[in-house]
């Protein structure tokens, strides 16, 4: 086992979460990777990867996973709240189950992970909590309104959390904000123009 940093990545099996996972393993760090189906992580298996089949919407399972992670690797250095889903549709037409599912993963999942890891980071006196938001967390767009709702909730919760924990944990919200604003401006320029304009 290496003495590298320990990552805790939700949604580690594909997309952005997998990229974080592969990058961390690539520099010799250890990763606790969560997904409901961890089979796609099988190819990365090794003693520096602990793949845990966890649904982040299950609060008890998330707290248990953090316990297992610390038992196995001793600490948590970088926690990435990445697991997310995108339920598309017009707000008017969303069914209850789909609307709740959007909030359950992108907001509540991140909330449970944040609550589970913060005491550990505080105890260690170090660590990073990375909340993966979206351009949808800064504005609403047709067909992705429920996704925006979940990311707005994540942004608001994270902003408050940063203030509440500021006395003993350092948060760098300004950099996150700057990065998302730049992305927002870039997207504004990318909005399709009407024909002939
Ligand atoms: N892709 C983009 O263009 C984009 C842009 C801005 C922001 N983002 C954000 O970036 C994050 C990752 O997006 P992505 O496109 O990389 O997603 P993705 O390719 O669809 O992968 C989602 C990951 O999350 C896991 N996941 C989903 N629901 C889960 C649950 N309830 N519990 C545990 N794991 C769960 C999935 O595995 P299982 O299905 O096996 O659970 C998978 O590993 C999301 O928060 C998304 O909102 C993405």
UniProtKB/TrEMBL annotation:
One Gene Ontology term of the molecular function aspect: oxidoreductase activity
Domain Ketoreductase per the UniProt entry, residue ranges: 5-190
Alphabetic keyword roster: Oxidoreductase
Keyword Signal belongs to the record: no
Statement: the UniProt record of this protein carries the keyword Oxidoreductase: yes
Classification via PROSITE patterns: ADH_SHORT
Database matches in Pfam families: adh_short (PF00106)
Protein family membership: Belongs to the short-chain dehydrogenases/reductases (SDR) family.
Protein name per its UniProtKB record: Ketoreductase domain-containing protein
């Amino acid at each position: 086992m290496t003495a590298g940093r320990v990552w805790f990545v939700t949604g580690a099996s594909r997309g952005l979460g997998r990229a974080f996972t592969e990058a961390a393993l690539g520099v010799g760090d250890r990763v606790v990777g969560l997904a409901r189906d961890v089979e796609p992580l099988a190819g990365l298996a090794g003693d520096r990867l602990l793949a845990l089949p966890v649904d982040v919407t299950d609060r008890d399972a998330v707290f248990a996973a953090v316990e297992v992670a610390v038992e196995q690797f001793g600490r948590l250095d970088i926690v990435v709240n990445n697991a997310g889903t995108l339920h598309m549709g017009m707000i008017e037409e969303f069914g209850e189950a789909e609307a709740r599912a959007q909030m359950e993963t992108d907001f509540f999942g991140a909330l449970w992970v944040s609550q589970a890891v913060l005491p550990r980071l505080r105890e260690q006196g170090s660590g990073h909590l990375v909340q993966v938001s979206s351009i949808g967390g800064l504005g609403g767009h047709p067909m992705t309104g429920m996704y925006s709702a979940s990311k707005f909730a994540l942004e608001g919760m994270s902003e408050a959390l940063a203030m509440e924990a500021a006395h003993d944990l350092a948060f760098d919200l300004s950099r996150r904000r700057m990065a998302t604003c730049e992305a927002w401006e870039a997207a504004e320029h990318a909005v399709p123009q009407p024909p002939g304009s």
